[in-house]
Amino acid sequence: MKEFTTPSGKPLQIEEASFEDACELNALVIKELLDSNISLSLVVQEVIGLLADEEKKKDLSKVEFSDLLGSNVVLEMASRIFLSLSASPEVRKKVFKCLERSLLGKERIVPSMFDTVENRKDYFFVFKQCILTNVLCFI
């Protein structure tokens, strides 16, 4: 389980989804990225250019997200990726399936939770953290 604090200050607990649900979310994310025409090669080039450590250039698995925080290209591309994913009804459905065991405050996360205007400011944060938790583990 991963714990976060949402933009509204509520505690968020993201429980990793079942392997099958995480695999299905991963497949949907890959499909959306391939269909979106977002240039992932530009991001990869930027990542490689940012890495001063030759060992990290040889083995990208040693790259930490914090290594990339200074790059406007990477941040802009990440924003485009998550906006593209959030526009997909299929991804949104699978994200909520993956969130079935997760909590926002003390409540299970379900779509109707975001009918309340106060909770909507946390929606994108919850969406993004679910994807990061359940898809990055495959990389």
Q: Care to describe what's here?
A:
There is one protein chain. With 139 residues, the chain is an alpha+beta fold. 55% of the residues lie in helices and 9% in strands. The protein is built from six helices and four strands, in the order E-E-H-H-H-H-H-E-E-H. It has helices at 19-35, 40-50, 54-58, 72-86, 89-98, 117-135; strands spanning 2-5, 11-14, 103-104, 107-108. It has a four-stranded antiparallel beta sheet with strand order 1-2-3-4, covered by helices on one side. The longest helix is centred in the last third of the chain and has 19 residues, at 117-135. The radius of gyration is 16 Å and the shape is globular.
Question: Brief overview, please?
Answer:
By secondary structure, this protein is of the alpha+beta class.
Q: What attributes characterize this protein structure?
A:
6 helices, alpha+beta, 139 residues, four-stranded antiparallel beta sheet, 9% strand, 55% helix, globular
Termini distance? 18 Å
Number of helices: 6
E-strand count: 4
C-alpha Rg (nearest Å): 16 Å
Structural class: alpha+beta
Order of strands in the sheet with the most strands? 1-2-3-4
> Can you summarize the main beta sheet?
4 strands, antiparallel
Strand fraction = 5-15%
Q: Which percent range fits the helix content?
A: 55-70%
> What is the succession of H and E elements?
EEHHHHHEEH
Spatial shape = globular
pLDDT averaged residue by residue:
83
Low-confidence stretches: none
